[in-house]
Amino acid sequence: MKKIVITIFIGFTLLGCTDKKAQEKALFDDVIKVHDKVMDADEQLMKNKMLLDSMVKHNSTGDIKDSVYRHLGKLNLADSVMSDWMHKFNPDQTGKSHDETMAYFGTQKKLIMSIDSQLNAAIEESNKYLTKMKMK
User: Torsion angle, CA of 129/132/133/136, rounded to 10 degrees?
Assistant: First the structure.
């Protein structure tokens, strides 16, 4: 009887560890999915930055330059925030407890989702501006 109880306890313990690792991997995968979405938008961000830079070089009107610089500033900020996040993100959580790992990846998911929103807003605004100025 004692052997059966020990075997069942070891089985549940191993199953619990596997479940925790699966939870950690699922949350990590969520972070990476959002990251990949942001990286896909990066191409549009760079295209818009080039078009806006070109507008500055070929237009001497102060009002237009102000608008262009405002849009460039938002695009540059979104790009900078993304780059900063990527440099600080640490996918290796070896040696951390399950709770620490889940908290870290949870925080990172919130951060990258915020960056995604910021990036999309900057791109959308600049797209509208470029369309209005007939640069697209």
Answer: 80
Mean pLDDT, the chain, integer = 87
Q: What is the 3-state secondary structure of 114-126?
A: HHHHHHHHHHHHH
Contact present, 82 and 4 (Cβ < 8 Å): no
Report the C-alpha gap between 124 and 33 in whole angstroms: 21
Task: Tell me the C-alpha distance between 125 and 120, whole Å.
Answer: 8
Contacts of 130 (CB under 8 A, 6+ apart): 48, 51, 52, 136
The two structure tokens encoding residue 121: 């807003």
Task: Check: CB of residue 10 under 8 Å from CB of residue 88.
Answer: no
Give 101-127 pLDDT, tens digit per residue: 999 999 999 999 999 999 999 999 999
Q: How do residues 22-72 score in pLDDT, each as one tens digit?
A: 999 999 999 999 999 999 999 999 999 999 999 888 876 778 888 999 999
φ, ψ for residue 58, nearest 5 deg:
-110, 10
